[in-house]
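Margin note from the TA: students keep mixing up input and output lines. Inputs are the sequences; the output is the structure of the whole complex. Example:
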Amino acid sequence: MTIPDTWEPLTDLDPILTIAQDLFTTMVDGEPGHLYPWMGEEPTLDDARYTWVDVSGPVVTRVMLMAGRETGEHLTRALLAMGEDESVNDADFADAVGELANVVGGNVKSLVTNPGTLTLPVVTHEAPDMAGGTKLIETYFGWKGAPLGVALWALA
Amino acid sequence: MVDMKVVVADDSRVMRQIVIRTLRQAGYDWWEIEEAENGADALGKIRASKPDFVLSDWNMPEMTGIEVLRSLRGEGNETPFAFVTSEGSEAMRDQAEKAGALFLISKPFTADIFRDTIDPFIS
């Protein structure tokens, strides 16, 4: 699927859901059905971490994942095939959630005509300053009972 | 079975592990794999160890994957080279092909995708 020139069609959440579910089915869970749209009120993230990549171009587009630290540690263990009782260090955590953002960002970029380059992932404890930006999409999924957010921003 | 030396290049240790694990699941558990953690590291290891095949990420610090490939071809090094990358647009596939890559696998991937894509080139 190719979307011409504008992010506007991406306000339809279906492509994001498809990208995220493909990613979790193939590389996180090894089987479908574990990532699902979050139902109900917008969730609160416990000890939140923000991970993003930017797609450069006439408008810089930010693809950001949002998850609690504990959820990110579960994701890291799944990606590195670690045991549930193994501790997760900061480097592996940043690498794992960064790579998830990278894959989502790369796939989102592929939906747009004439995109620029994709930046390397950044992981922070505080939400980045998006002043002047426009939120195109923010949605949440459930994974292992915990919320996992995905947002797309057009930055000034 | 003949020896097969392969360089897997990705700046993400997590992704290198996933790529190597998926190669094993796809049946390439007999490959001798050397890891490279960025483009410049990959270029040095390819020059030094002369692998039979390179699987590289595209977007890496130091040198991107496409810069590594162009450097190799520019110095007459024809090591078979392919990409495993999060971006699978037609434009990138065209760039990869023109630079001399065998194929481009986009993330996320499965062992079946690896097998179906790689097997024709191995044979």
